[in-house]
Structures
1.
Amino acid sequence: MTSSTNGKQPCLRVIPLGGLHEIGKNTCVFEYGDDLMLVDAGLAFPSDGMHGVNVVLPDTSYLRENQKRIRGMIVTHGHEDHIGGIPHHLKNFNIPVIYGPRLAMSMLQGKMEEAAVTDRTVIQTVSPRDVVKVGQHFKVEFIRNTHSIADSFSLAITTPVGVVVFTGDFKFDHTPVDGEYFDIQRMAHYGEQGVLCLFSDSTNAEIPGFTPPERAVFPNLDRHFANAEGRVIVTTFASSVHRVSMILELAMKHGRKVGLLGRSMLNVIAKARELGYIRCPDELFVPIKQIRDLPDRETLLLMTGSQGEPLAALSRISRGEHPQVQVKSTDTIIFSASPIPGNTISVVNTIDRLMMMGAKVVYGKGEGIHVSGHGCQEDHKLMLALTRPKFFVPVHGEHRMLVCHSRTAQSMGVPADNILIIDNGDVVELTPDRIHKGEPVKAGIELLDASRNGIVDARVLKERQQLAEDGVITLLTVISTDGVMAAPPRVNLRGVVTTADARKLSVWAEREITWVLENRWNQLSRNSGGKAPDVDWVGVQREIEVGLQRRLRRELQVEPLIICLVQPAPGGTPAYKGRAEAEPDTRPAPRTVRHQSREVVRDGAVRTAPAAAATPARQLAVAAPAAAVAKEEPQAERREEPEMPANRVRRRRSTAAG
């Protein structure tokens, strides 16, 4: 693939794979000619409907297809939504080198060791104003900015078509906790030289004014520490190194020993102390098992769980499930964080549980115990004034944020025709004189389960949603190789709310099995010349599942997940005379018109005929022998079905119902 506009003029292509129309999984691709450079590779948190999903990543199909062109990666800072996806991506493709700040690279090294992918790349740390060359066409200068994590950078990327400024996450904090100021002079230098395009963080684009400095929370936290009667329990983002540093400073000021809870909190503090971003004596920390022996007035617990994560320390404490810590009525619990969109309900539920236990809980904007790490409208204006870009693309935010940011850019003199609002997978093509959208690439999401190895595909997610909403029905049937039902079906319900009893469901199952054997068996089996016919058992299962599902949807208005398990029986096995025959099914056999590999079935509904020879093998459930199943018929299934009233007309199976 070449970077060109309609094959005429070479151009720079910028392709976000994550971080647009959403919060999280920030991942962006820069490419020119045969060079491809990645900027960040983050993750996101699952939404409520993503059952069993722990991590959401961007779809990296495009990167896997072009992995030979990847020359390296640039990391702006160490938040999970910017580095959390890197270990997983390294399992699928190599990245020759990763450049990034010391703290982010230290955190990434631990993640890579845990994932056993340290041999898939080389890590290089950088300092402010360092310039690195990636491939033949990219030179990247790291410009210090201020954010809610230490060691954060914006990027000035020099390309053959001009300079592109990529802000990363930023705000203008003129009193930084660590004394590392935003390098405004260097950003202004590039503005003087000429910036072709600015890609800027849009997270707080809807909020007027400047974002308050991190130090603004210090006096409010100080007041709550001073007024606390017993233990102080604080939860915040583990990666908010500046906030953690202030909390530890206040612990020393008020004579409190600190106990740490949460794996990420322990890891980040250890690495930040090692690199000098947090300075405090070793004696400040006490193991959690020993801190219980100290007076409550001398205790501070710092932990994860500010987002209501089910397995985080504070969430477990709120449910009374933590082995070392139980809530006391004298505790003061401080939420020094705001909920990420999508986490609000879980955070509120955690707060409610803690309050019901009698603790004093301090939370919310009115308390002044949290400030954002992202710039608001005046920060955005200052960035635009410093860089004076010719073209502008708002990134890192939901759609309304991107729109607000584009309006801010227009108010600062950027023409509307020079602004693009894009989505994940869109391709921004840049030349010295033009910006426009190219042909989009594949984008989407990859869902990881708790192991962070297994991909949860769309089919699995849909089945989990069905299980959560309507439950599951398992159906065991015995069918001989010559197409007869050899034993009564056994139906088992889990989580299904229905007025139908087991007898009725069993009768419905018999009818669906009988219908499939009478009307579909010829298409699902063939005589291959051997003793037994070649049966497409997968097709048999699927036909029964679909038929029963349609009947349940029509009769009971429920759509449970239906799993049909077929136990094959030898040919010649006696046929089971089921109860369904006492109430014969009056549905006519389908009229079938063959068209090559398709069949028109049931009043014109088109269905592809399964080919037994081409059907992939599917492992069938190991069930009891046919004779044993027949003997173990449940008592409910042995009852005789009552006669139908004379004035009742049985409904026939329609096309829609199957």
2.
Amino acid sequence: MLASFAFLRPAATVGLLSLLAPPRLQAAVAPTASDTVAVQSCTQADAATVLHRELLAAPLDARGIWLDARTVRWPGAPTPTAGERYVVYGNPTGSLRLTTGGPVGGATDTVHLEPYVGPLATATAAQVRHVGAGVTLRIPSSRRRPFRATGQLVLAREDAMGRLVEVTGTQRALALDALHGPLAQPRTLGAATTATATTFALWAPTAQQVSVCLYTANKARVLPLTANAGSGVWQAPVAGVRHGVEYTYLVDVYVPGVGMVRNRVTDPYSLALTANSARSVVVNLQHPTLVPDGWGQRRAPPLTNATDQVIYELHVRDFSVQDSTVPAAHRGRYLAFTDTASVGMQHLRSLANAGLTDVHLLPVFDIATIPELGCRTPEIRGSPDGETQQTTAMDAAAGDCFNWGYDPLHYTVPEGSYATNASDFAARIREFRRMVQALNGSGLRVGMDVVYNHTSASGQHASSVLDRIVPGYYHRLDATGRVETSTCCANTATEHRMMAKLMIESAVTWVRHYGISSFRFDLMGHQPRAAMEALQRAVNAAAGRVVPLIGEGWNFGEVADGRRFVQASQLSLNGSGIATFSDRARDAIRGGSPMDDGADQVRHQGFVNGLGYAPNEARAIASTPGADRAALATAADLVRVGLAGSLRSFAFLRADGSTGPLSEIRYGGSQPAGYVTSPGEVVNYVENHDNLTLFDINILKLPANTSGEDRARVQHLASALALFSQGIAYVHAGQELLRSKSLDRNSFDSGDWFNVYDPSGLTHGFSRGLPPRRDNAASWPVMQPRLANTGLVPTPSQVQWTREAFKDLLRIRASTPLFRLPSADAVMRRLRFANVGASQEPTVVVGHLDGRGLANAGFADVLYAVNVDVIDHEIPVPFLQGQPLQLHPVHRASGATDTRARASVWTPSTGLLRVPARTAVVWVRE
């Protein structure tokens, strides 16, 4: 149903089509300003002008939910008794007067509703499964049309005398979708430019007037746009406006709780922006000034199977801001990737040569919280365990140059702070492309971390774009009409047609015009599976190939368990080909949960850091050896789940003596450990930008007397388990460098100081002070003594060992497709585990990969083992007895990093494999 409304009088006779047809959109009130005032609206400091203040003393909630263009439900409200009635009242400017016990005043439109008890259409019912029970009402069929989306609208319950009993505002998104979605979805939105003119198109079905402000030679002019009745799109071609012209929109729209407002906004479909996102810019992305030399000849490395990906998650600023081998003007910016002789680029190339395939960049779209002009990086000093560093960093956080960027402002424009000149709209486009070009030239595909699940702000906030154009549509609302914020900020509603359209077309632009090869979706479980599958089809068509999609499939918040739609979550994506991060093996390997605080961060040891075999001081007090040994065996089984690609149907003999599919193994008490139908649908990892780094986790969990060399080995073992696992491999930049954030569990706005990344190994992030109080204060008591111990800071040689040992792991994974099998059938036929069941040695996992009959397998047999224990172990592998295995060529090479692996012994006659302490080793038969 359309939003606020100037209702039309019913006609005497009318057909069904005209009953449902949307009204012609036009101004519902006379123009409120002269052309001179309108031009001033283009340039005045305030981006919003209240043209008519709403008369209500306090904002209404919005408990009335329009299910379609004629049907509304009021959850919790009763079926009307004799004499009671439900009425919709409208006023174009917010002038309704509502007094309980009296009549509604100021209404320009009134519709008496009738109860509806029939079934809802299947599609409608699916969309509103989250809406609670209550009275369902309909606009009478005798009414010629629904209503216009141009003002205030309330739903009232009245007694027989017409006195107000109860009143609420309404949520209108589904009505807007029903009335305008089919015609609006195919429309081209934004600023489409040709050689002679630019057509401006903005979807604003609830607006009463829309104009475009054009800025040339420091002068502004304003031109009205014309509304299209069916689509809700306001549009006008403007001759003479070409590439490079700046523009904004003026949208006169009713804002619930405020009144009639003229909002000056940028274009949600912006492709270019001025500094600090002040104005949109008309741009032709094929314009010669935006295209680097050789861009047309650039080719990303090909990808055969999703499971071939080994992804390196990297933040643009982290990569180079502290790299003195990068020219000063390029540090922290896109162009640092073009400095091929820098330490950072040499490191990326060396990883690519070893087997890394993709770099995934943390958000690089337009970010709301990084000043593009005038940002400052504070000077920070303090003791290794002091509070000074975090205080200084937090005091400067709002104006410094750092943020992870999970606070989108415009989805389809490169972030300006990473360009050498944020004031030059062309620079950020051209330099972004040069970055992609340089990474492709280094043998790496480029992926993007995208955040379509929320915006940085909503309502009338200065950083709110979408909600200031169509209030209440683009964001997901709760039962009272408030914006849901379970993802941290203002959750978007990609279940609504036009939000899904914006997301899909944005992703297509990044693929088509910026050479993006894949995407990582932040909190993807908050989006519908159907929208993600539509996006998959669109980006594949744009690229002419499969564009891999991975994302966080966590199931929580207002959408949890399919309350609103079938989610793009871990348990709902089977068969889609879209991959989710797996927390099953991650938590077993590391121990505990990312949500642990304080002493729990120490007490909850994991598979690699001592559970059941090397208890730390807290664990020794908290548990018993027998219980810990059983917990270790359970953790080992979950590690095997990860090694088997978390496949639902894969089976092995478990520690409890049972055999069955991985879907029967419980994770977290209630979820199936095995949850995917294809290895290409799972992402295996032990560290990413979120939460503590792996090194910092191990600082907390390993026994205090663990040597620096053994800490490096534990890091290596965790990486080996991720890289030996079937599925997509994912590593955080610096995981191979023992990266530390000085124990900061959430460094999203902690500045350069706590996010240090140095591939040279000379600078390290540990003992740089207590991490920011905001997310870490509860753990300061366990952090402080560790940070004070500067002996825990790795030496450059330990960092170098870990880095080179990681490259050996990459080489091993790249040496054979057996570590990256493309189908569930292949994994089930070729992978089996030794050392399983009740009699297993739970500190060692052993897997065998059968290469017989597999083209280009390289090896007839691959036997891998990871021993996390502090002592050697001898493991029987009876099904390979008699086979003449030898160490993998990487281990045999003269430059092999982990020489301890050479002490591993395979005895064919007995089928026994000896694995040294804290060693990952691979044996093969060629």
